[in-house]
Amino acid sequence: MTKKTFTQKLKTHSLIIAILLGFIGFMLLKYVPIFSVFKPAAYFACDSLPFLLFLMLFLSFCKIEVKEMIPKTWHFSLAVVQVVLSGSLVVLLMVFDFSFITVLLIEGAIICFITPTAASASVMTGKLGGNEAAQTTFTIISNVVAAIAIPLLFPLFCDVSSI
């Protein structure tokens, strides 16, 4: 295997390799006493994760030109689906009297539908060969829609005193 094909295979499988290495490292630090000397370094790495995530997102968003971020029909279609699904479940909760478990399941579904797209989705889209600009555009639209819809929908089914 040449260096170029090895590098290409490593890039292709880097996500699963990182997940496995993280899991193995966690298990070693947690359950193997000899590795406890590395715990301060692990705590430092854990504390630096927010900065590293910010850096990763910032650098990936810097690659995107603003002129590439043209909203398409599917962006707004998905935003409408996001609001309609969560809104219809809120109406369902308001109209019918469900058992406690069913109410919890429906509220969980509402939260799943109304939750905006994560900022890291565009990074993963780019890693998988997709269109980062289109995903970033949808992330912005989804977050704006959620910022408007959540304060409008949640008081309809949440008791304010329970917050």
Descriptive overview:
This protein has 163 residues and is an all-alpha fold. Helix content is 76%, strand content 0%. It is built from seven helices and no strands. α4 packs antiparallel against α5. The longest helix has 26 residues. The mean pLDDT is 86.
Give a brief description.
The protein is mainly α.
Please state the average pLDDT score.
86
Apparent shape = extended
Range of helix content: over 70%
Class by alpha and beta content: mainly alpha
Number of helices: 7
What string gives the helices and strands in order? Answer: HHHHHHH
As a whole number of angstroms, the C-alpha radius of gyration is: 21 Å
> What is the count of β-strands?
0
Outline the fold blueprint.
Blueprint: H1 3-12, H2 14-31, H3 39-62, H4 73-95, H5 100-114, H6 120-127, H7 132-157
Keywords:
163 residues, mainly alpha, 7 helices
